[in-house]
Amino acid sequence: MTYRNHWKKNLFRYLLFSVFVVFIFTCILNILPLTPDSCNCHEKVSRFKKASENGVKQFKISQYKLAVLVPFRDRFEELLQFAPHMKQFLDKQNIEYHIFILHQVDRFRFNRASLINVGFIHVQNHYDYIAMHDIDLLPLNENLSYGFPNNGPFHVSSPDLHPRYHYPTFIGGILLVNRKHYQAVNGMSNKYWGWGLEDDEFYVRLKEANLKVYRPENILTGSQNTFKHIHDKNVRKRDTIKCFNQREITRKRDRQTGLSNVSYKIEQVINMTIIDVPLTILNIALNCDKTITPWCECTKTNENKTP
Prior knowledge:
Distance between the termini: 115 Å
Family: Belongs to the glycosyltransferase 7 family.
Subcellular location: Golgi apparatus membrane; Membrane
Enzyme class: transferase
Protein name: Beta-1,4-N-acetylgalactosaminyltransferase
Mean pLDDT: 85
Helix content: 25-40%
Largest sheet: 7 strands, mixed
Low-confidence stretches: 32-59
Function: Catalyzes the transfer of galactose onto proteins or lipids.
Number of helices: 7
Shape: globular
C-alpha cells in the first residue's frame, strides 16, 4: 500500500508539471512574432497591380517583370505624350512593368544600341525581360501583347503593322527580349553612332543564335492605325551623316563589341513622375574609343573621310 500510494502521488506531480510546461510553451508561442516565412503579405501585395474594369477594382499579378527601356535625347515633348499613353496601355495588360528613360548626356552622337545595353545592365538583376522601345511609337491596338517572350524575341511593331518600315528583317521600333536571350547574343553592337542600322545588326545576331523572331497574329488593324508615330522630321532631323569608314563597317556583323564591353558611366539616377506615371531617368555618359569608331564625332568637314 505504501508503494502504491507513493506511485500515485508522484504520478499526480508529473501530470501537474506536464500541464504547467504545456501552458508555458503555449504562452511563449503566442507572444513570439511570426517568422518571415509565415507571412510575406507586404511582399505579395507589392506585386499586385490595381486595374479598373467596368468600374470594378481588381488585383492583378504577373509572373514576370518588364523593364521598358527608352533611348532618349532632346525629346521632352514626345516624353510628355509617351509616358501617360504607355501607362494607360500597359495597365490594361496583366504585366508588372517599369519605364526607364535612357538619357544620353555626353557630347557624342546618339547611340541607341549602347544606351539599351546600359539599360539592360542596370535592370537585369531585377527584371525578367526588356522592351526596346522607341519614344515616338505609341501602340493603339489593345490586342498587341507586351507579355513575356519565352520562346524568342517578340517584335511588337512588325513590318506589317509599322507605319514606315515594311522589309521582312525589320525588328526596330518595339522589340521584347527576355534576359537569357539578350545575354546569349551579347546584347547590341556599340558601333552605331548616329541614326539607323543597329537593329539590322541585332537581327543578324539573333539569327546566328537560332532565335526565331515572333510577331503579332490576328491583328485586325494595319500599318495606318496600329501605332501612332509622333516623330516630326521637320522639327528633329535624323542624324544620318556617314563619315570616316562608317558606311563600310556598320554594314557588317560586329564581333568586337556588345553588352560585355559597353563603356559608360551612369552619372545620375532620378526617380520622377509625369502626371501619375512613375519613371526612372538614367543620365548616361557613353565613352567612345576613336580608334574603333572615329565616327562617334562627325561633322561636314570629316564626312566620308577614312581614318
